[in-house]
Task: inverse folding
């Protein structure tokens, strides 16, 4: 079945440590997105990529980094500069750019601080 | 920039009650509007979407939403809720190639 796979499901980070969240899609979608979900704040956009080797900052990019070396993959690194990383992270993808297709979401990764 | 407001943060209903969740977006022009649902422990799923045409949109599981351009609104409705509708509901609107989400409404339905 086509879909978006996020791993791991749960992740723990020590102070000062960088961690990378994986997002893979086999939907042949052009665009991919990373959101952070906090209680009462909805989903806030961290980074998005519309094409391979290109990405743009979202509303809360500070303390995060991404890469888009392959169409299928859009990993998110939570760096030590992100002072409040505990959250639920959602990856999404969307088909043809400029179309009206909705975003599809992965199951999410819950990141906690040790 | 586009923004989305969901005024109901937490709604508690009994089964068979009617539901209406509010959603307003900040500015007009051509918009694409969505409602997503997140059941406990599950990923976000698309409930319904509006792109153009009939402003009354029907989605899955008996949900519908009405796009009222003059009010910048896209409220979600269901005539009779079930316990299984307990979930968090998110309204979203496109902003160029991004999707802007509201803060979500948590719905609890009691038998």
Result:
């Amino acid at each position: 079945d086509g879909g978006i796979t996020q791993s791991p499901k749960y992740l723990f980070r020590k102070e000062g440590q960088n961690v990378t969240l994986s997002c893979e899609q086999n939907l042949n979608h052009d665009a991919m997105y990373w959101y952070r979900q906090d209680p009462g704040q909805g989903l806030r956009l961290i980074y998005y990529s519309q094409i391979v080797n290109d990405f743009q900052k979202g509303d809360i990019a500070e303390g995060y980094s991404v890469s888009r070396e392959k169409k299928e993959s859009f990993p998110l690194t939570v760096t030590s500069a992100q002072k409040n990383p505990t959250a639920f992270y959602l990856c999404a993808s969307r088909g043809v750019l400029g179309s009206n297709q909705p975003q599809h979401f992965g199951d999410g990764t819950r990141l906690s601080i040790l | 920039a586009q923004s989305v407001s969901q005024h109901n943060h937490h709604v508690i209903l009994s089964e068979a009650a009617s539901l209406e969740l509010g959603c307003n977006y900040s500015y007009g022009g051509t918009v694409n509007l969505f409602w997503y649902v997140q059941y406990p422990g599950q990923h976000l799923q698309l409930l319904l979407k509006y792109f153009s045409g009939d402003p009354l949109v029907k989605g899955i599981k008996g949900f519908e939403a009405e796009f009222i351009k003059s009010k910048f609104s896209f409220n979600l409705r269901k005539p009779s809720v079930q316990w299984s509708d307990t979930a968090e509901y998110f309204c979203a609107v496109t902003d160029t190639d991004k999707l802007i989400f509201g803060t979500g409404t948590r719905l609890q339905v009691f038998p």
